Amino acid sequence: MARGNNKHSNGRRHTTPQSLNSAIKSICDIMRRSNCAGALQYVPVLTWILFLRILDEREAHEAEAAEAVGAVFTPSLEAPYRWRDWAAPDAPKRRALETGALGTFFHFVNNELIPHLKSLKERPNATPRQKVISEIFSASSERASTPSATCSMCSIRSTKSVPNRSTQRTSLLYRRCMRGCS
Prior knowledge:
Elements (H helix, E strand, L loop, with lengths): L16 H17 L5 H30 L14 H4 L5 H8 L4 H15 L9 H12 L7 H8 L11 H15 L2
Helix pairs in contact: 1-2, 1-7, 1-8, 2-8, 5-6
């Protein structure tokens, strides 16, 4: 699969710190205009949304690499809990949630997605990555606070991935988020 034609991509890629900062600032502006009381309320939600987006992109790269050498790849999250399934603007699950009854998207995120992510460590044969995901979500008490704002946050475009440096990328995104949203 060509890098530019990634079927899980949801638009143009942010290839510079400035374009990523601009996207995060736009999301923060949306959050400030919604019912969020302030940055302390929406920065944690934005952080876990970015985390899930980066995880999905990293696993797409890992699946692609495994396929290239004929190896089997098992993703940490299965459908419908992967970013590409519920949050990407062109995702079938997201379209179904947005066109469903009022509050369906919000209900899925708070009552299905987050509890599922928190419970990953309880699975028999949970992978180290699944345990980390579970710990991240178990440590956070933050739930999506407003449906429209959460949808807007999910619309952040993909980042330019560097598979061997994804931990650095996540840390950098988090620092930019904290700096840009305050």
